[in-house]
Fold this protein.
Amino acid sequence: MLKINNLNAKIEKKTILNNFSLNINPGEVHAIMGPNGSGKSTLSNILSGKKGYEVTGEILFENKNLFELETEERAHKGIFLAFQYPLEIPGVNTNIFLKTSLNAIRRAKGEKELDAIEFLNLVKEKAKNLKFDEEKLNRQLNVGFSGGEKKKNEILQMSILNPKLSILDETDSGLDIDALRVVADGVNALRKKNNSFLIITHYQRLLDYIKPDFVHVLINGKITKSGGPELALELEKKGYENFN
Amino acid sequence: MREQLLTDFDKIISDSKFSNNDIEHKRKSLNKFIENGFPTKKNEDWKFLDIGRIIDKNIGQLDFYNNYSSQNKIDTSIFVKGLEHNKIVFVNGRIEKIDLKHEENNKIEIKEESKSINKFNNINSLINLNNALTNKHYTITTKSGYSLKKPLIIYHSTTNSIYKKNINLRLDFKLEKNSSLKLIDYFYDDSNDNFLNIFYSFDLAKDSILKNYKIDHKDNKNLKYSYNHIDQSENSLSETFILSSGSSYLKHEINCNLNEKYSSAFVNGILKLDDLKNHEIKTNINHLNENTKSYQLVKSVLGKASKAAYQGKISVNSIAQKTDGYQLSKCILLDKTSEFNAKPELEIYADDVKCSHGSASGSLNEDSIFYLMSRGLNYEQSKELLINGFLLDVIEKITDSETKNLIKNTLGLKE
């Protein structure tokens, strides 16, 4: 599904990703763990098409060159990024935003757009599963939401948009244990044989709830070790220094 | 210009039925205008919108005389739909229709009179021009205790039969005790290169409420000056909302005197400009008595070499204790060619007051655009969503829900 070959990324002449390669097959859950500044967020930004990076190498998503696609086209193809710091968008109603987003993606895929009632039924169901306060959906997008609510809102968007590849950029940071469980349940509910996940995190904690198929250690822009879920436990014990 | 003015003035006087006193007064105003001419940026108040230069550069010689003897056809397709309203229709400066069918008889009155002709001398050069050249003076009175059932829309429409004309228009509004008036000024121009000079005065008696919404949205190449003078008595309230977007050049000026205690004034506005347009909102709120309140919020979205300015002045008289004055201006510059100027002024002579001002301008947040695009919206949609979101809170200040919807629809804000 996703093939990253020898990806190099620089920002203002500083190398952030250095010959980074990764393969994700349909249905797989990959976790990338790494210390601060190792390039985790840069990776997720580049996958989503954020501008401002100087990149070389190759990223194929379902055999299409991602560099040829704009951010919104990547979303149409099924790539979703749950932001580390979801932005507050004043004046934009959350429900209206969600509907605009879902219908933009459905339209691009040639599917029928949902009308207001169909949409509300869908959003109600998803919000309920995530224990997301429905009243908040009538508020301005992320404005005045707590850190946990913002993260939950990302997972809500993910479950509504039903992407093929979900990238979770430190979604666990700032979550209390209950919220963490709700978020993990949301992700697990989406785990299907065709949906893949790339989970970026500092800590092993989230991986207690979302069992990854593969764990990779990212240090200085490079994967220094890959393994199964046990690697996360090892990291937690030994720290990143031993993987450099 | 002098010769043209004098000839045109004589024609206007010979067409009209003004008393000798009135004519004398008008002639004085004309001479005053001739002495000073159109304001230019040498005058501090006009430094952001140099009307003298705009006329020189874009219009050239103006024609000050309008033949009001023949009727203009009204294009009814311009009327606002989906909102029941009373109307006064101006076409090229001539009143073509007065329709107050939603109101009770004798509760709102329109009279042709020139009583207040002497009242506003030398406010500025353009008001002198207006005093000199208006052919008619109307006073619109809302009677004591009466609230208009439906808004009154004043259509300021122009057609392509006028070109390089100066139109001067004057209306005086009286709101008697405990009355209320919702007034929408709706500009619709099919003409270019004219100068429209509109002067309103409002006299708000105790407990009266004025809501004045101004909508200039249709693209046109005219120059406009709109001056509102508002006098407020005890516990009266004025709400002014300006949507300024359509004309090439437009300056709104609000001069509001909070003469008696517990009177309050709200001025909110949107300047949404592109294509080299240049607009300005200038306010002067005078707190002249205790416990008066003013609130101003102006938001601008500027692109394509457009320019906007907001000059907001709050003056607090030494006896106006417990004044509450607030103004805030925010601007989004969509590109490097556009320009925004803010000039807030506070002049405070009382010691127990609460006054504040703020101004911020910047570009659209690229991270927010990236966030929205990562959810499948394209760049244009994301930009539009952010701009509409930015403007929403000033639109939410409109207290009349029907007008709020009209303005949302005008701006294409979808629910």
The CA atoms of residues 227 and 253 of chain B lie 5 Å apart. The mean pLDDT of chain B is 95. Chain B has seven helices and 19 strands.
